[in-house]
Each structure stands twice: as structure tokens, then as C-alpha cells.
Amino acid sequence: MASYNLIGQLLSKSIIESAIAPITCTQAETSHALKQFYQHWNLTTEQKIQDWCLRYCLTQEQLELFATRKLRVEKFKQITWGHQLESYFLKYKRNFDQVIYSLIRTENRGTANELFFRITEGEQSFAELAREYSQGTEAHTSGIIGPVELGTINPNFAQLLCTRQVGIVQPPVPFGESWVILRVEKFITAQLDNFMRQRLLQKNFETWFQQQLNQLSPEEKTWMGIIP
How many Cβ atoms are within 10 Å of 20's Cβ, its own excluded? Predict the structure, then answer.
């Protein structure tokens, strides 16, 4: 196992297996999971199923646990964190809100002021000037950036965006080593829909798993690749 670098994988799986051990599935859920499993592995006959189990030394009970593993992990997530999702979402909602904005950045203050004047006077559009003068990747998208989650943006820059009125070109402001001209195009409010619920469950699961890894012995962490 060591030569094939499998010990880390075994430890990883054992952590999850221990957590989901108490989780059970209904007969209907198990039957559905088995059906999907058989389809995935092209086990179209009873003989093929028996041969497959014999090949991997699996009993029927072990096969059912194998087939329902993903479902039991999802149930574990729901049981452990499902009741916390609404409060968690409300606490961090701003990080999930998205923004679309236009940006022009230049290292020269005088250039920034000149470009702002051209936009406000209607001499050239924001998009035209962004393509010609902006010194970032936004030059390739006519200055448009987003939609992007506020939580993924530099906090100071996110705050800057949140204080801007939608559709209004703002005078140049210094940010980092550049002068930036901003126009917020749209704010998109995050919703606690099914996609977001699944995302938050996964995020909590990953945090929990990392905590479990932190509790491993130094030797186990070495096997997991956590310690060089």
C-alpha cells in the first residue's frame, strides 16, 4: 500500500466511513442506488453482478454499503449541518452576493482624469477607453468584470464597489499602485436556493474534514501528505 501511495487514501476514506457508519438508507433508496450502480458498471444480468462481487470479494451487504456511500455522505451532511444553513447563509450572505462592474485602471493619475473626462463628456464610451487604455485583463472584455462574488474580491475593493451607485461612472480613485475608474453595472443578490444549500453543505463538510485531519497523529499526517 505504501509503494502505491494508498495509505493516505485509506486514512481519508476511513475518516468518512466512521462518520457515516450510523447513517442508514431506506429499502427504496438502496434499491435505487443499486440500480444506478449496476448501470454504471454495466452489470446487466444477475450473473454479472455475482461475478463482480466475487471478483472484489464483496458480500451483498458490503455491495449495498458501497452503492449507497454517496447517498449516505449526503445524508450525513444534511443531518449535521442542514439545520444551520439559513443562519449561516444570513451571516455570510454579503460574501455570496455578486457584482458586475466596469473597470479602467492606469498607473498615471493624469491619464485617469483625462479618461474620466472623456467618458463624462460623451467623447468616448467606457468600453472603448477600457479596451484602449486599461492595464489589466479587463481590457479584453471592454472593461466588464463579473459576475463575481464579493467574498472573492479584495475586501477593500469590495467595500469600494458596495459604496458606488449602480450605473454611475465614478471619478478616479487610487487603489494599490493604480488609479481606477469604476462603474457598477449590477448587484445580484444571493438566494438560499437548492444550489446554494448544496454548496454550503459541501463547504461545511470540507471544513469538518479538515478538522479531522488536524487531529491525526504526525505519522498519519505524513501518510496523508500533510507533512512533507
Answer: 20
